[in-house]
Amino acid sequence: MPAAPRLIVITDWRLPRARLLSALERALEAGPEVAVQHRHPEASARTFLEEARWLAELCHARGNPLFVNGRLEVALLVGAHLHLPAQGLTVEDVRPHLPAGRQISVAVHDEEEARLARGADLALVSPVYAPGSKPGDTRPPLGPSGFQALAAVLSCPALALGGLSPERAALLPGAYGFAVISAVLEADAPAAVARALLRSP
Q1: Radius of gyration for the alpha carbons in the chain, expressed in angstroms and rounded
Q2: In angstroms, rounded to a whole number, what is the distance separating the alpha carbons of residues 110 and 116?
């Protein structure tokens, strides 16, 4: 099994497609530890697959991992890893259907979900800070101590998600890595931000 990525950039398809793909391409310049997660819950199945194919071409050409959010069949069709949202399919449900070497990431928001994450290759723990891409999110942020408490329950690497910047990432010692949306996608220099996040302790 390959090592888990240390930075995952999650797509925001509200951005113009050309801008989104350009930002992702530049972020991937930071190296093979950067992955992309294809998330677009509002998309039709056909649109989601078409977008996944664009992202797979982008990632596979550079040797970067691609995770598909929640849709096992699309992950299989484009040769991607799989991300499982909370309250959905479990790792045990999907692992037998994935080829060897494919990773599974899971969403974790509380201790119960952390315990249910057994068998995952990595977990995205959120919201550590108030998410910049979800201004209507009313969940109280975990903060550094809440993140560290959930990371301690997990049996897989924990990536912090929610309102992250390189400055805030530096306040999370012990985090395996980070997952971001606007911090990279809306940055003037996505590669520089990605590299700064990878340098965080």
Answers
A1: 15
A2: 10
Q: Prior bond to 127 cis, omega within 30?
A: yes
Q: How many CA atoms lie within 13 A of 155 on its CB side?
A: 6
pTM: 0.95
Continuous H helices in the chain: 17-27, 45-62, 72-78, 91-94, 111-116, 143-153, 166-169, 182-185, 190-199
Q: Are 37 and 20 in contact (CB under 8 A)?
A: no
Q: Does the pLDDT value for residue 43 go beyond 70?
A: yes
**In sequence order, which residues have a C-beta less than 8 Å from that of residue 109 and are 6 or more positions away?**
86, 125, 126, 127, 139
Distance CA 57, CA 149 (A): 37
pLDDT of residue 173: 85
Domains detected in the chain? 7-199 (3.20.20.70)
